[in-house]
Amino acid sequence: MARPQQELQHIAKQAGHSQPLIIALDQENGGVNSLFDEDYVCQFPSQMGVAATGRSELAYEVAKATATQLSACGINLVLGPVLDVLSNARDQPLGVRSVSDDPQEVSQYCVQAVNGIRDAGVACAGKHFPTYGSLDFPGSGLEMPVITQTLEQLSLSALVPFRDTIASGSLDGVFVGGVRMSNPSMQGQHACLSDQVVDDLLRSELGFKGVAISECLEMEALSHELGVQNGVVMAVEAGCDVVLLCRSYAVQLEAIKGMKLGIENGILTKERLFTSLKRVLRLKSKCTSWAKALNPPGISLLSKLHPKYLTLSQHTYDASITVVRDKENLLPLSASLRQDEELLLLTPLIKPLPASALTRSILDKKKQHAAITTNHDKWHHPDRGTAILSGEEVFRELGRSLARARHGKLLHTSYTANGVRPVHENLINRASTVIIVTADANRNLYQAGFAKHVAMICSMLRSRGQKKHIIAVAVSSPYDFALDKSIGTYICSFDYTENAMRALVRVLCGDTPPRGTLPGTMRRSRKSVKSKQFWLVEEYSRSRDAESLDALIRNVSLATSPSYPYLAASSASSFELGNPNMIEGHFVVRNSSTGALYGFAATYRLGTLGILGAIFVDPAKRNISIGKSLHRRAMRSLMQSGTVKMVQLGSVFPAIFLGIPVADDEGSTNSARDWFAHSGWDVQFPRRLTNLEIPSLNSWSAPEGLLQSIQRANMSFDLIHGLENADTVLAHVAAHANPEVVELYREALAKSCGVVRAKGAGDGLLGTVVICREGSPLARYIPPLAPRHGGVVVGGILAPVVPPSVQAVLTLQGLALMGVRQIKSYKKATTVVLSWTLEDMLEPLRAMGFETLQAFEEITNSPENWADLA
């Protein structure tokens, strides 16, 4: 992939250049990528998409990954990041290329991005100085856009990210825009041709010492007014060190001729040219060398990095998808739409993005270019607009993906400025849910009008008793319906590349929770609304709260059955371990007048592990921030200890909640995961834990041949009791399981439970499991072990710890077999529960006759997610 750049560098070397060429590229991610290859170069979200994750560290990781890929291809200068502040976010063409409308947030994310690019060994040039974020477009496409802010206003907003990134010392270049300034003293001057902008404002006032790069002087608005020759001389005289002329070789020759005329006319001096030369050479020494330029690693490195960057890409896209509102609880679609009901997808006809396999296929096959339709597009680079295309290729794969993901019916057609046609009305009548996609509806007003018309039709049909839901999806600017709440469910994806559309489908169908938020002032305003109501959280007091907690548990149990059928078997005492190795901290939200508990959270600290063992709220008091208040206090108590290096959601001891309960009702499951995701947990990579049971011991028998297989493997088993015999067992568990599992084993041995050990031919320990007879004291902490109605007596096999080996499956089955035999020998037991089973253990145990009782998703995260609570 690096061959063209490599050849250019060889030519430069042979021509006697003292340093390699600077090879620059627009690579902003999202919709503006000059380099894209679905097999080797990963696509990442736009800058606003990254900001929507709410995690500035992702800006660093994404920028570093992007620059590393470019470096592998022989690119040594990135024209980015975009430092513009969207002063009028709804009307500016930059849209998602910018971080947001908040100067401080733009600075935060862009400083991280600049550092990421530099740490990849690539130079970067922030753009577009002084701003493209507050432009007014005149009537003619040949007139230059005008910055609407005064210099004083720019200093307080648009210049903040430039000032901060320059101060960081990592910004190598600044891209100076081709726009007019509205200040009277600068009327008629283009920014990149003005010494007041480049030399005075950028260099003298902001202290920038790097390379200043002009906007492309082939822009129609600039070249028609001044001509390329005059433009080049003016740019250099203004202080630009690099002048862009991007498309035509003939125009580049014209520019060189203009430079010569500038010197001959005495306008440009040698001193001025050598100043720029020194800056460019200094830049080259930072970002390239002949060894690096002549031997870029290319595909060999890209292939190695691709899996890692694909994971980062998916993680960032998934975290960026933003559900702005969902008033009717339509998401996920599985919760509001049956498989036999039809889903209608309505999409506009728009130009595919450069960072798209579709763009390449269209250009290769059809060699077609879209017609430019607006002044924005005439001013912009041709591949950055939103011009109209004939055809539905852009969103065709989105429709296919939706149909596959929901295993149901999907109708899909496009719409144009012609409005709602009979074909649309017919399809709306058939569908139960309509998804309308918009792309920059504030600039393409027909899209907003179409969406409102469809919403009106759906409202009319609902009034007649038909099921008609509507969802709006903005795939570019998030401001399409951010403030217009006429459509109750509104989602933003921040670009419409294939990766973004796949992430959108995962959120629509409930495969991943929506975790994004609208960047900038919209995020602040939503946070301020949410943070207005907080409940007082107090530490749990046994003497004061135990009886009320029992009542709360009963209420929650009745509301969650059958999703979590055994919560009723627990009590207030189930959460109080009294274990000297575990520091407990339990919290309640209570009515101080009546003593009733509205919510409860249990935390445990074990060395460097912090555990949120339970959190639940009275069903009659949900959705009024009680859970959020409890969660915040619980996490703060863990963070403020100063010792926690890992936080875990769910605990095996006590085993009230092994994690997020996985209910039979998928809607309930996703709802719980979504709640924790919105509370700061990264729920993408859970560990599935399952409680299994043999319902009837009387009718159960060991699988044929299992005992013989164990004997042939020279495997032996023994049963130990008491802590005095536990050293090797506890060491084994500590090496292969979480710390709270060690405490479960320690507690079991101290309370007269047994541990079955599996040994190999050399007497080495292959695995262990805890055995509890009916009525065991451990049943207090493990609800499935409690006696049940109808004379059901339960014995327990707890926490099998079997490390990976060639004999792991046989060891696991042997331990289960010995456990069942031991429990059967107690005579009274009629049912066996096997608690805390890892996902890779399920099939061998099911083959023995165990059935699923309850599944959970245990989550572990870094405490950095709640660093603000420390």
From TrEMBL:
Alphabetically ordered keywords of this record: Glycoprotein, Glycosidase, Hydrolase
Residue span, Glycoside hydrolase family 3 N-terminal domain: 13-283
Biological process, per Gene Ontology: carbohydrate metabolic process; peptidoglycan turnover
InterPro entries, A to Z: Acyl_CoA_acyltransferase, GH, Glyco_hydro_3_C_sf, Glyco_hydro_3_N, Glyco_hydro_3_N_sf, NagZ_Beta-hexosaminidase
Presence of the UniProt keyword Transferase in the record: no
Source domain of life: Eukaryota
GO MF terms held by the record: hydrolase activity, hydrolyzing O-glycosyl compounds
Family to which the UniProt record says this protein belongs: Belongs to the glycosyl hydrolase 3 family.
Protein name: Related to beta-N-acetylglucosaminidase
Organism: Cephalotrichum gorgonifer
